[in-house]
TrEMBL record:
Gene Ontology MF, one: DNA binding
Protein name per its UniProtKB record: Helix-turn-helix domain-containing protein
Top-level lineage group: Bacteria
Domain annotation HTH cro/C1-type: ranges: 29-72
InterPro entries hit by this protein: Cro/C1-type_HTH (IPR001387), Lambda_DNA-bd_dom_sf (IPR010982), Phage_CI_N (IPR010744)
Pfam family, one: Phage_CI_repr
Swiss-Prot/TrEMBL GO biological process terms: negative regulation of DNA-templated transcription
């Protein structure tokens, strides 16, 4: 597994502090505004009351590109979704197309369950 520039053992509150320092951000409200969540939500992360959902991690990585989704996910105690190359995506779609309707529905249900399990970790 590749290493990143993140500090080992850095939790989400610490990474938010570093993000504020690196981007010159003075308030939780500014982070909240940039990722379209409430300031109270960011405050729960800062005070270690809650961890962010995957959607918030994705939004943070997009709004603050010096911080990767993988780095933010690790700090939140989550695993980031794996990379999906266009070739891999095409192979998966081709496999899916060869399944029966019932198999496609079953596979979709399984994939949703896996995704939802990752979101609650």
């Amino acid at each position: 597994m590749e290493t990143t520039d993140e500090t080992p053992g850095e939790d989400f509150a610490q990474i938010l502090k570093r993000l504020k320092d690196e981007y010159g951000i003075r308030s939780d409200s500014e982070i909240a505004r940039r990722i379209d969540v409430s300031p109270a939500t960011v405050n729960t992360w800062v005070h270690r009351k809650r961890r962010p959902r995957d959607e918030a991690i994705r939004a943070l990585a997009a709004a603050f590109p010096r911080f990767s989704r993988e780095e933010l996910s690790a700090a939140a105690g989550r695993q980031a979704p794996g990379p999906l190359s266009p070739d891999a995506e095409q192979r998966i779609i081709e496999l899916f197309r060869e399944l029966t309707k019932d198999q496609q529905e079953f596979t979709e249900t399984q994939l949703r369950a896996l995704r939802d399990a990752n979101r609650t970790r």
